[in-house]
Structures are given as structure tokens and as C-alpha cells.
Design brief:
- With about 80 residues, this protein is an all-alpha fold.
- It has one domain.
- The chain has 3 helices and no strands.
- α1 runs antiparallel to α2 and α2 runs antiparallel to α3.
- It is flat.
Length: about 80
């Protein structure tokens, strides 16, 4: 894999982390900020797992299991918050 791609993904992950910190300090509704933070965290989770854990070259079962895990965890968190 190209080092430029990994560097780009790393920079995007840093920007998403900074965005998460900024959203947490906003004075918007708690539910809206929670959903925004969950979406940003999901993007970071997918970025780390597919680019730094080499899930892009894994078996299709593992790719689907990552997405299923992500949707289940986010669904449970949203269900608990409501």
C-alpha cells in the first residue's frame, strides 16, 4: 500500500478526532451532538479497521462482521439514549 494513502487516512483520522472534540463542546441539543459524534466515530472505526488493520484484503465474512458489529453497537447506544 502506498505510504501517501496511509498518511492521508491518518490525517483524516486526526481531523475527525478534532471535529469530535469540537462537536462535544457545542451548545446544540444533546441528541444531535451524540448522533454526530457516533457518526464521526463510526467513520474513524472503519478507517482504522480497513486501512491500518488490513481488513480490505480480508475474507468477505470479516468485512461484513465489521459492519454488522458497528451497526449493532451504534443501534444499542442510540436505543439506550432514547
Amino acid at each position: 500500500m502506498k505510504k501517501n494513502l496511509l498518511l492521508t487516512v491518518w490525517i483524516v483520522l486526526i481531523l475527525l478526532t478534532i471535529s469530535t472534540a469540537l462537536v462535544s463542546n457545542l451548545t446544540i441539543a444533546t441528541t444531535v451532538s451524540t448522533i454526530i459524534i457516533l457518526v464521526l466515530s463510526a467513520i474513524k472505526f472503519l478507517g482504522v479497521s480497513f486501512y491500518f488493520m488490513e481488513m480490505r484484503s480480508a475474507h468477505i465474512f470479516w468485512k461484513y462482521s465489521i459492519f454488522i458489529y458497528l451497526f449493532v453497537v451504534i443501534g444499542i447506544i442510540i436505543f439506550i439514549l432514547k
